[in-house]
Hints:
The chain is α+β, with helices and mostly antiparallel strands. It has helices spanning 46-60, 68-73, 82-97, 107-112, 126-132, 160-177, 276-289, 291-301; strands at 4-6, 20-28, 31-39, 141-144, 147-150, 183-187, 190-194, 204-209, 220-226, 229-235, 240-242, 249-251, 266-273, 304-310, 316-320, 328-330. It has a single domain (4-330), classed as T-fold. Helix 3 packs across helix 7 (276-289) and helix 7 runs antiparallel to helix 8 (291-301). It starts with a strand and ends with a strand. It catalyses: L-threonyl-[protein] + FAD = FMN-L-threonyl-[protein] + AMP + H(+).
Amino acid sequence: MQILILIITVLLFSCDDGFNKYEVYGNALGTTYSVNYYAQQDQNIKPKFDSIFQVINLSLSTYITNSDISKLNSGIQAEVDNHFKNVFKAAKIIHQNTEGYFDPSTGIFVNAYGFGPERYNMEMSPKVIDSLMNFVGFNQFKLDGNHVKTDLDSFYLDFNAIAKGYAVDILSDFLKNNNLQHFFIEVGGEVVAHGQDLENNKIWNFGIETPDENNTSRQLSYAVSIENKALATSGNYRKFKIDSSSGQKYVHTINPKTGEAKKSDVLSASVVAENCMIADAYATAFIAMGFDKAQKTIDKYQISTLLIYVNSDNKVQTFISDDLEGIASPL
């Protein structure tokens, strides 16, 4: 889902003040991750990061059958851990702030359209969509201690649009708790940047990809400079599927109001926030909302956002919130 490309030099080097630059990378949460940090000696953080990813997976991954969320989706009244509760509570707030356009209960549609771990192999007719909508509505879920309660007979929660951002935040907290102050963490395009890029003596700089589903060169359209902030980008132009029988094109972001998987007029949404979990969720919601509703939400809650969208004349335009002027620059 994420479409962020890093403009970072990752060569190991030594600073005059004794700090070295280290790079760690690997696979986790169904995607890749990379970390650059400055320290006086190697912290050997990869095994610790892998342990954190494992714990988060066991809580929130729909691709692991014995995770907390998978147990809930299969009808088991399992206890959930603090990671699950943290994500659930944040999702509730963003669900409310976006008037329901951020809705983790649309997981049943993610599977129905063939984007999730379970593929229902259904013909997505209006009748089928109307039937599945009976199992959607995050407002019908609540936390009761360590349990999730709902009156829905069947459901499929999916926190993939917020869990990667949450994982980045947990990794960031781990580094700061270990006295590392200059780093960036990227998981599947979701980023937290802290301190500065000491090699170049400037704050971290990241690039926003030009939204073009036929663009195999992955060109960049904007650069964003952030310090002690998170950045998440969402778009629908790369991850899609075409039904073999009907030729219908489905994108992976579901409109929770209609159950449809149609292309939005917002091609790309990039959000800068205090933490990556919030940025991740809002970026997804703005794709589903479309430009007009997204702009109103951005203005109401003062969300730092860059939207690349198509206007009524079918021309690609850019909207940049006032607080990102000077931080986001065209390339």
